[in-house]
């Protein structure tokens, strides 16, 4: 029993030591399962051996009691000490009336000892954080790179036009292990936002111009597309004639700058689309003509049929986002917080009255920014993500995105008024095809990618996770083997105590007591009545015996003295 308990305690100690730890590596290919299996086999086999010996000793206690017992019980006890089937029959026969039931129950339930121990260990694969400088994500410090002489690098222009002509921008984090995480970090970039303002846009001064179809010679005139805030769009109209017939040329599509930060004059107090003082505000208008009731009739003022079909207003501005990248199974994902459009603030370069007030930008609101260092033309604070002056990229962006003329001709010939169109450049065709909203989305994404890869960007180190095999112990499956061991110990102790109290010889499962202390002569016939096992079993059922000292033989015998 000590060996069985020692093996089980060793199993428990091993499981406790390696639970939730990385799977150990033993020499010669030995595994943790093999060690547990060996100890489990040793614990179970020694437990069954002790239980069998206890049942064998209880057998002699059974027959040496005060009452006579059926001789067939000798066979039942012997079968119970040999295996689970005999023990099962003994459980049914004894029904918990004596200690033998405990031994029989343990023997039967011990069938599940090994299967339960095999279910104890499992080996889940988990991702283990490993410090590594190879798991990196880009962080943009400023929306654009500008040297101390206020010169923007050439890559800015390339990124700007890449945004117009292509899409699908982004900088994926570097994760060699395929599973990485990063702490949330802020990164500067560009954002766009658009809104349909057709309902609030108006054509101003575009009707009843001082010209009619009978006026001689060409005439250029202009009117405006007025929005609630910002600069209007100038509509250039040309009156003329073609092959003796009057014609009219007006823009069909227009993109213009509604508001911009492109000068050192510090004037900012405007809000567009809910954003205070955005860097650039654009508008796109699509113009058309109302169909006259009789299109063959020559109208003296065809410009009166001019209408606004659609007007979109958009902003393109600096912004800050808090990124929380993650790579799982080689697939990267990015959790992005709400956009912070930051604020424009003033910074004086020089001494009054010659000081120049620059409009600067930083993320967040309210917190003052301190600039240190010399009085360079370009001033930066990397810790605050602030940059001055903030208007340098404006002219390049305006030049790339404004669209002045995509003209069509409205003229009268033999068929009446006919609408035609001039040829367009590649850029004009692209901007018209995708529209201002999508164009600015692409430009903002491309410029953000440019900022992430610029010379001012930084690398944020994350945590790389590598797959590791762990040991997981399911303690539920240890309960039954532990319970069987406890019952075996209880049976062992009770058998010893009972045997000492009754002072019975330790015969246990030995076959020799049957030979030396077998049946008395009065229970045997000289006939060949007990030649078969079945005949002996049948005869034993009708005989009650008791292990007691024979008066004639002067030794313990199983006899029926009555």
Mean pLDDT metric: 81
N-to-C span: 40 Å
Q: What is the 3D shape?
A: rod-shaped
Q: Rg to the nearest angstrom?
A: 49 Å
Biggest sheet record: 8 strands, antiparallel
Task: Say how many strands there are.
Answer: 25
In DSSP terms, counting alpha (H) and pi (I) runs of 4 or more, how many helices? 12
Strand content: 25-35%
Helix content: 25-40%
Work out the count of structural domains. 2
- Low-pLDDT segments, ≥5 res: 293-298
Oligomer: single chain
- Secondary-structure-based class equals alpha+beta
Pfam family, one: DUF3176
Keywords: Membrane, Signal, Transmembrane, Transmembrane helix
InterPro entries: DUF3176
Question: What features would you describe in this structure?
Answer:
The protein has two domains: 2-122 and 472-519; 135-466, no CATH class. It contains twelve helices and 25 strands. By secondary structure, it is of the alpha+beta class. The chain is 31% helix and 30% strand. 33% of the residues are buried. The strands form seven sheets. Strands 3, 4, 5, 10, 13, 14, 15 and 22 form an eight-stranded antiparallel beta sheet that branches. Strands 6-7-8-9-20-21 form a six-stranded antiparallel beta sheet, with no helix packed on it. Strands 1-24-25 form a three-stranded antiparallel beta sheet. Helix 2 runs antiparallel to helix 3 (72-82) and helix 4 (84-94) crosses helix 5. The model is unreliable at 293-298 (pLDDT under 50).
